[in-house]
Design brief:
Radius of gyration: 15 Å
Shape: globular
Number of strands: 7
Strand order of the largest sheet: 2-1-5-3-4
Strand content: 15-25%
Distance between the termini: 27 Å
Number of helices: 2
């Protein structure tokens, strides 16, 4: 959905109780829907990324990639879309990346965000997707 054409109230009226926005969509109806040149704003081609995908009803995948370091280049949007498609998602969406690309599982940090132990300055983030 395009947030410039649908209001939050319209979504609530349609029964939506959780919505995330950043974008773009990566996979729709099982097919990659970004090109090799698509990018978010002024972002580099390869970056830390976070994506949410749907495999089936109540079967989701969350993917977080590192990037911007010597150890990890990260993903372009197209590469991330291909990766998500390879996981079998029918729909996938790019969420915010950069220093906010952080995954914690059972209290332990899973990835190596750019804000961990290096001089890269990332903006502060005050929201999360929490699954408990």
């Amino acid at each position: 959905m395009d947030p410039s054409t649908v209001s939050a109230q319209e979504l609530v009226n349609q029964g939506v109780w959780q919505a995330f926005t950043f974008g773009p969509a990566l996979v729709q109806d099982g097919g990659v829907c970004v090109s090799q040149t698509d990018e978010v704003g002024k972002a580099k081609a390869s970056n830390p990324r976070t994506a949410l995908g749907i495999i089936d009803k109540n079967h989701f995948v969350l993917v977080v990639s590192d990037g911007r370091t010597d150890e990890s280049e990260g993903f372009s949007l197209y590469e991330l879309a291909q990766f998500m498609q390879g996981l079998g998602v029918t729909c996938a969406y790019n969420l915010d990346g950069g220093g906010s690309s952080t995954m914690v599982f059972q209290g332990s940090l899973v990835n190596n965000p750019t804000t961990t132990g290096n001089s890269t300055k990332e903006r502060s983030v005050n929201d999360i997707i929490y699954i408990g």
